[in-house]
Amino acid sequence: MIRRIKKLPVVLEPEEVERLLSIPDKRYISGIRNKAVLSLMVNMGLRVSEVCNLKPGNVNLTKRKLRIVQGKGRVDRDLIIGLNTAEALRAWKEVKPKNTAYFFSTIRNRKEGIFATTKGSKLSARNISLTLKGYVRRAGIGKNVSPHTLRHTFATNFIRQNGNVMNLMRILGHADISTTQIYVTLANKDIETAMDNFIEFKR
Q: Which domains does the chain have, with CATH numbers?
């Protein structure tokens, strides 16, 4: 029986994340929106489908709380929004098309900045993926990056900052701890601890 070799997922290093987040141009409505989308995925670990399905009522910026309704596995979960991500979400909320069914929407106007001609419909996963790939190229990141890469990056960074695996499991909405355990390997926490405590031979 041939066993499949499991490859570790691609993650971005902190300096790559900083370059990526600097690309969206906040002079434009689309740039403000895209900065908020990227922040949710890389700073909170949301799946791209969860970003697309967010409703205005799921985002409480006053209390900095976000509710994922029926994520993967049809499980709801509540998350705390970090200060930087809350700022990005607030900036988008101020300029987004009004009375849309979803928090993130498309922007249809001939000239950015003319709100009267802006109409919003649900933002698609494909739209986010294509936009992300363009940003990755402009940031000079030579990796195959998808929206899920940002989720992997968040999880790895969480563990690197001494995050608890059980807490991470609940944040990501995993049903099985073994799925979350991969990020301990990615973060090298166990390996670093083991090597630090290893007693070397000396002559």
A: 14-197 (1.10.443.10)
